[in-house]
Amino acid sequence: MSAPAGAPGEGAAPLGGSSGPLRGERPGAPGERDPGGTPRPSGGSDAHPSGGRGSAGRTPADGAPGAPEKPGAPGGSGANGAEGGSGYGLRLPGDPPGGPRAVAVWGLGVAVYFIAVTYRTSLGVAGLDAADRFEINASALSTFSILQLLVYAGMQIPVGLLVDRWGTKKVLTLGILLYTVGQFGFAFSESYAAALTCRALLGMGDAMTFISVLRLGTRWFPARRGPLIAQIAALIGMAGNLVTTLLLARLLHGFGWTPTFAGSALAGVLILALVLCFLRDHPRECAPPPAPVTGRGYVRRQIGDAWREPGTRLGMWVHFTTQFPGMVFLILWGMPFLVEAQGQTRERAGEMLTLVVLANMAIGLVFGQIIARHHRARAPIVLGTVSLTAVAWAVVLCWPGQAPTALLLTLCVVLGACGPASMVGFDFARPANPPERQGTASGIVNMGGFTASMTTLLAIGVLLDLTDSYRIAFASLFVLQGAGLSQILRLRSRAQRRERERVVASRVEAVHVPA
Fold first, then answer.
1. Chain mean position to CA 253
2. What radius of gyration do the chain's Cα atoms show?
């Protein structure tokens, strides 16, 4: 993160790329002067395709403050407009300085997200143990994860609004309290109802982490580093799955239910103390402007304005269609499918789940670098991932008897692409919304994949109880993929046309800079 501008990976996007500034940027006010003394153009945040600073608010490559950028210049949109360049290569006026302190504070926030992911996915390796402990069938077992994801998805928009109003530290503190209490309670639960309540608390706390961490990165690092910072945050979060599949599964086998889950909850207590002592919302010298006065219709306007943007809706459907096959496999049904349907040992199944996580992390870096340099690659990456996932599942489910190990390993690698492809949804929504609406738009996008995951978890559980066939149960994946794909194809051209219009507006504002 200390590499100089223009170093490899500098323009990488958060597992899906971004060509615009991230949330939390302060839009240039009409008449306000940059440090170089040049007034910013009027037009506010809407002048730029992502709602942040327009091109006139940057220092161009020739060093003349306020001069219009040339297409394809560092920090510009490139020759291809909305589908072109890789984002910011230069320091923007008023940006946070970054540095070691920023890394430390941001790293603390990422640790909160890391722990949330380990708690979220812990049931993925404990599904069979939970069924025995609470004496429940497949449908009741899937309800654990369904309820957790239902709470998570339902809180995304409220959390986005809370982050904008309260700040990151308060929201993260509340999230830690909720998911730590939920994990402790789950460790000591003896009844199915009590365990369900604890998973709901865990889901509420988990819901408050990801959007908060993204906002923390934009407050502490310059915009040109924002995409790389968000990418690394997502990768570290995915590493929480490794802890679950490699460590938690072994602890569960060696020490039992209560010691394993109660011991893991101690990490929440530790991170809470660190956040209270050391986390800060932003550097003291880079305080954001006061939050705007909100009226009675503020929430309705925020949600309505974000939803009306085709890019927001396209981002939601991209997230919906790409995320759930990998999420369902990791969070609950992967272990039972590999052990009971494919005859793998628990140890081998755990290794295959680990392969999904490792593939996710590696493919995420590749996708981020590709999209950062070639914005046109967003849609092909999404459509290619959906197609490969459908083909891989079709071959495995149609294979007579148990699928060979090589085919199952291929399936796991393909499923590893689902998470990175889902992050492309944020890259469609980000340039469609101004900074003051980024939290709400991100919440809408994030709801998509978790809603699909929740629906699929329930469908697989119900179909397993009715048919006792994993082939039929997992065939429900194709229904949601088809529904999401139809919406992506319907909204794609409309969203891209809107992006191009915003880029043109940004360049017009850059040329007509007041003298």
1. 31
2. 23
Cα distance between residue 61 and residue 208, in whole Å: 39
pLDDT in tens, 228-244: 677 678 888 888 878 88
pLDDT grade, residue 290 (50/70/90)? low
* pTM recorded for the entire structure: 0.71
Using the structure block, give the residue that is written with the tokens 């709901």: 200
- What are the CB-based long-range contacts (under 8 Å, 24+) for 4-7? 5/89, 5/90, 5/91, 5/224, 6/74, 6/89
Q: How far is CA 360 from CA 26, 27, 330, 423, in A?
A: 33, 34, 11, 11
CB 452 within 8 A of CB 444: no
Of the candidates 5, 14, 84, the residue with the CA atom closest to the CA atom of residue 429: 14
Backbone φ and ψ for 278, nearest 5 degrees, come out as: -125, -20
Alpha carbon of 177 to those of 144, 187, 204, 265, 272: distances in Å? 20, 16, 10, 11, 7
Contacts 24+ apart (CB under 8 A), 265-271: 265/180, 265/183, 265/184, 265/187, 267/115, 267/118, 268/115, 268/119, 268/176, 268/179, 268/180, 268/183, 269/180, 271/108, 271/111, 271/112, 271/115, 271/176
User: What backbone phi and psi angles, to 5 degrees, belong to 510?
Assistant: -65, -35
Instruction: Identify the CA nearest to 86 among candidates 4, 8, 1, 3.
Output: 8
pLDDT tens-place string over residues 107-164: 999 999 999 999 988 887 788 889 889 988 888 888 887 788 788 888 988 898 888 7
CB-based contact 215:163 (threshold 8 Å)? yes
Q: Which amino acid is at 181?
A: V
